[in-house]
Design a protein that fits this description.
Blueprint: H1 2-20, E1 30-31, E2 35-39, E3 47-53, E4 63-68, E5 72-76, E6 83-90, E7 96-98, E8 102-105, H2 115-120, E9 133-138, E10 148-153, H3 184-199
Parallel strand pairs: 1-8
Antiparallel strand pairs: 2-5, 3-4, 3-6, 6-7, 6-8, 9-10
Signal peptide: 1-21
Transmembrane segments: 182-199
Keywords: Membrane, Signal, Transmembrane, Transmembrane helix
């Protein structure tokens, strides 16, 4: 019964968005954190481009790509795999274009998808252990005969593009929400300092 209701909802959403479309837009293939290119018919620019959930096309955008002057865009898909979305484009004359339903394919790379975006789809974000790390090679001292490899985790700095950023460069990783990661050594130092204050 639930599957039937979902199918009916998706069909109705597709029919509604298709009826509202004023010009055509391509329906690209999306793979999590891989670059995708899509385009639309030239009308009156600039164009406002957003990504919405396929089962709630009239709800809040999942990602707002801002104002685009051209009629195509290449974008790293900052969406979790196994989800369904649609593209919505509005030109300066208030005409609309809707893509078909796009299923986002899963990949091994989830570094570009923010925790908030996972939560928007009701999904659990990957653990912090999946974060990328940078490797630095330390040259050996004269008394050493081997090379030491030091791995240091770092913040990817990737965040979703919010509606407040409309007009920003869609390729920029800046946004209204920022994820801050505090390393374990800093947390340990803060804990020791707090303990010292309590003793005093």
């Amino acid at each position: 019964m639930y599957t039937t209701l979902v199918s009916v909802a998706l069909f109705a959403a597709t029919a509604i968005t298709g009826a509202l479309a004023g010009f055509a837009i391509s329906t690209p293939q999306f793979t999590q954190c891989q670059e995708a290119t899509f385009s639309w018919e030239k009308t009156v620019g600039p164009y406002h481009v957003v990504v919405v959930k396929a089962d709630d096309p009239c709800g809040d955008p999942v990602i707002d790509l801002g104002e685009i002057d051209k009629t195509s865009i290449s974008w790293p898909v900052k969406l979790p795999g196994n989800t369904k979305v649609q593209l919505y484009v509005e030109d300066s004359g208030d005409s609309e274009a809707w893509s078909g339903v796009i299923e986002v394919h899963k990949s091994d790379d989830a570094s570009c998808v923010s925790a908030d975006t996972f939560k928007d789809f009701g999904l659990t974000p990957p653990t912090s252990s999946a974060a990328h790390s940078s490797t630095f090679v330390v040259a050996p001292t004269p008394s050493s005969t081997s090379t030491q490899v030091v791995t240091e985790p770092q913040n990817s700095g990737l965040v979703p593009i919010g509606a407040a950023n409309a007009g920003n460069n869609p390729f920029s990783s800046s946004g209204t929400r920022t994820m801050h990661q505090i390393s374990a050594p800093i947390l340990a130092i803060c804990a020791l300092f707090a303990a010292f204050v309590l003793v005093l």
